[in-house]
Amino acid sequence: MRCDFEHVHDEFDARLRRFVRSRVWDPESAEDILQDVYLRIHTHIGTLRDCSRLPAWLFQITRNAILDHHRARRPTQELKEEVPQPEEPETDEAMAELARGLAPMIESLPERYRQALSLTLHEGLTQQELARRLGISLSGAKSRVQRARERLKQMLLECCHLEFDRRGRIVGYQERCRCCARSLPGGGVTPAPPAARP
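Structure (tokenized):
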């Protein structure tokens, strides 16, 4: 197969025109794209080493020219220098209520988990400081805090149905059992009805 510009024009012109017109409805734009394609072919045909790849190479150039045309036609809008940030709620009432209600749940944890949570949550110790305070390894401290959090999370999920926003933040809760009524102030969304006695 010949790899020169005249051969390309003679053998592939009709196919390239059909290819462009099937993707660009405006005849004038299609003609502009085709002229751009021929300019690219003329400029770069000397770089094609394997003439058996000529058809694939031509259609790749044509696809790229069509993509460039569509990109250039996309509407652009100038951005303002300062993009307004979405407002964050100043306080998260549901989270605050849940946090106040966690104390009784934390108190019901086994001593080592209660101690790990109390020192990290209330006293603000890092896990490394917790390890030094308790005389255990850092991995041991991390494991203890992780297990304490998992137990607390499980207790909370058994006690309440939590409602989340699209960012994963708690925005509301509904009590499921009597322990919630004792532990959580404010009553959440709707208290669960008391269980019927047999």
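The two ends are 91 Å apart (CA to CA). The longest strand covers residues 170-175.
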